[in-house]
Amino acid sequence: MNPFRRSPFVIVSAVLVYIFLYAPILGLVLYSFNASRANVTFEGFIPAFSDRVVMDGSLVKSSPCGPFHWYCDLAKNDDVAEAAGNTLTIAFIATIVATVIGTMSAIALQRYDFKLKPFSQLALYIPIVIPEIVMGIGVLTLFSQLFGWVNEVFNLSGDARLSLGMATVTISHIAFMVPFVTLVVQARLQGFDKSYEEAAMDLGANEWITFRRVTFPMILPGVMSGALLAFTLSLDDFVITFFTNGPGSTTLPIYVYGLLRRIITPQVNALSTVWILVVFTAVLTLQILQNRESKQHS
Amino acid sequence: MLKRIRESKAAQGTLLALPTTFWLFFLLIIPLFLTLVISFGKRSPDGDVIYTFSVENYVRLFGYSTDCPDGQASCFDPLYVQILWRSLTLAFNTTVLVIGMAYPLAYFIARAHPKRRNMFLFMVLIPLWTNFVIRVYAWMMLLRKEGAINIIIGAVAHFLHIPFTPFEMLYTPGAVLVGMVYEFLPFMILPIYTSLEKIDNSLYEAAADLGANAVKTFLRVTLPLSMPGVVAGTILVFIPVMGTFIVSDILGGRQVILVGNLIQRQFLDARDPTFGSAASLILMVMTLIVTYFYTRKFGFGEEIIVA
User: Fold this and answer.
1) Sheet arrangement for strand A59-63
2) Could you tell me which residues come within 8 angstroms of residue B237 by beta carbon, excluding any fewer than 6 positions away?
3) Residues A109 and A49 grouped into a single domain
């Protein structure tokens, strides 16, 4: 029996599900070239290049960027640039902190016995079994009550008053990313062969050198995939950010959500397309690098 | 002090786990506790919280109302019970549909040639990596009266000479269901694939040797062994669907209100955090009960980490 044999039913349904997954994205990309500013129906591509934008009602007749009009429009949008900057800043800081402390706790949970262990292990599952909105409003309540109290007790006024912003978003992101990093690194540590460490110790390395030269390089792929997961979680997060952001800390998902509730021009589609391309390129590059590395090792 | 740490394994473990435990304690446990405290509080006229012990919010959620039509002091208002029930049935329907769509695809990938498996998996992940909000927007464009789905149905109807007038699919319960299925489909495909891929080929050969046909092999070998993946996927889909508010907000308009929308509005528009907190706790209890009974029946697979 051929192990790779699949019935026609499986093949047809797989193709249909792939179409279901991709059709909306292709539609999104197509509409980013829409000549119609109203963006309700697709009115064709923007036909011509010209020195300045020529409009006919809500139709763009020609533009300095031609069919790529909405992409040039996007590049001039300062709000998008600011939101993109915020999104990346939050993701970078939160990923670094979450990866470091998550790896530490994974090692602790896998290798050590201590009093808090059952509590720490249980707490890791909270973000998985509780809807994000419950955590989101919980954190919002914590910050608003805490800040209200601090502002009153210390009699803070003006800019000195504590309020929601980049810091609250980053701190909250770390909280919901840490469990995922810990679980990924812990899974990696489970299959860890201790004899390498014992060999290093036998050869006279102390604990720190053993960790740096033997343990760490061996768990590094796990740490990297934990970090990558954390980074994508942060980039993609809407709910937690929605409840913890304040003036000046708008991220891209929050910005797009704001646009959807107002007038939607093809600029939103251009933004989505750029986003998809960036993520796709980044992930593909990582995948290729990883494949190359695993080939070198085998 | 340093010497003690160096000598005690327990102290080292505690220290290593300390930052995470500390972080989770302050940003998960304390907020949950605060939500509980506030849900028993009352709203002051300017939208602040008055700390007291009142079960009013919970009573209100389960239908007790003092705002009655014909001058009664109190009556039953099913509004919030309906919202909770709607969220529960939507999460159930979404999960069933998602399993139905994810299983064949996961099976297809797991049975593909090993060289092509990664590519097929990668193709599942790409839509997942485009942002959640963007994916809802994509469906908003498709489902509109002027959207692609109406255009395609119209073209087919025209070809078959059947009269067809485009209709509004946006802002209906169906639109919300489709949006939810689309958002969470990859979270079911990945764990099912992981458990299917683990199944040893020799088991299929043994089943064939013992005279089992394809259907019997599937029912007796494949399906039972892939159950951990289905269970993990169900948890990864059911729980977020229960709490999501963007999909219903954008694709459901004001027509489809879920418990997520209720909570969000209490915190932002209506400004009654005490009532929002009570709704949030009920949501949490509902998901915990469902997860508890479901995992007790089927077990809790490690597949959950893979996604």
Assistant:
1) A48-49, A59-63, A54-56
2) B94, B95, B98, B184, B187, B188
3) no
Q: Which of A27, A119, A137 sits opposite B142 (nearest CB)?
A: A27
At residue B75, does pLDDT exceed 50? yes
Please, what sign has the CA dihedral across residues A127, A130, A133, A134? negative
Q: Which domain-ending residue is among A26, A45, A72? A: A72
Does a structural domain hold residue A3?
no
Which of the 8 DSSP states describes residue B68? -
Nearest residue of B to residue A108, measured between CA atoms:
B13
What 8-state DSSP symbol labels residue B73?
Answer: S
How many Cβ pairs within 8 Å bridge chains A and B?
272
| Number of structural domains found in chain A | 2
Instruction: Please tell me which of the candidates A28, A108, A133 has its beta carbon nearest to residue B13.
Output: A108
Assess whether A133 and A202 both reside in one domain: yes
Q: Supply the DSSP symbol for B51.
A: P
Mutate to test the interface with A, among B28, B146, B199, B289 (most CBs of A within 10 A): B28
pLDDT tens, position by position, B201-210: 888 888 888 8
Distance from CA of B138 to the nearest CA of A (A): 5
**Same domain? A82 vs A68:** no
**Do A45 and A65 fall into the same domain?**
yes
Residues A56 and A102 in one domain: no
Residues A119 and A144 in one domain: yes
Q: Classify residue A270: in a domain, yes or no.
A: no
- Chain B residue with minimum CA distance to A287: B122
Q: Specify the 3-state DSSP secondary structure of B74.
A: coil
Q: Does B101 sit within 8 Å of A111, measured CB to CB? A: no
Please give chain A's pLDDT, 298 residues, in tens.
Answer: 455 567 888 999 999 999 999 999 999 999 999 988 888 888 889 888 888 888 888 888 888 888 899 999 899 999 999 999 999 999 999 999 999 999 999 988 888 888 888 888 888 888 888 999 999 999 999 999 999 889 989 988 877 788 889 999 999 999 999 999 998 888 888 877 778 888 888 888 888 888 888 888 888 888 988 898 899 889 889 999 999 998 889 999 999 999 888 878 899 999 999 998 988 888 788 878 877 776 665 5
Q: Is A50 among the domain residues?
A: yes
Q: Is residue A126 part of a domain?
A: yes
Q: How many alpha carbons fall within 13 Å on the CB side of residue B259?
A: 34
3-state secondary structure of A156: coil
Q: Scanning every residue of chain B, which has its alpha carbon at the shortest distance from the alpha carbon of A273?
A: B130
Domain boundary among A72, A97, A113: A72
Q: How many residues would you count in chain A?
A: 298
Cβ–Cβ gap B17/A253 under 8 Å: no
Predicted ipTM?
0.88
Residues A264 and A105: their CA atoms lie apart, in Å, by 45
B13 has a pLDDT exceeding 70 = yes
- Structure tokens given for B95: 């999960």
B122 and A287 within 8 Å at the Cβ level: the answer is yes
Per the CB < 8 Å rule, is B16 touching A107?
A: yes
Domains of chain B: 1-39 (no CATH), 79-306 (1.10.3720.10)
Say if residue A230 is in the same domain as residue A246. Answer: yes
Domain residues for the domain of A204 are: 78-262
Element (H, E) at B259: helix B259-268
**Is A24 found in the same domain as A145?**
no
What are the two backbone dihedrals, phi and then psi, of residue B54, each rounded to the nearest 5 degrees?
-135, 135
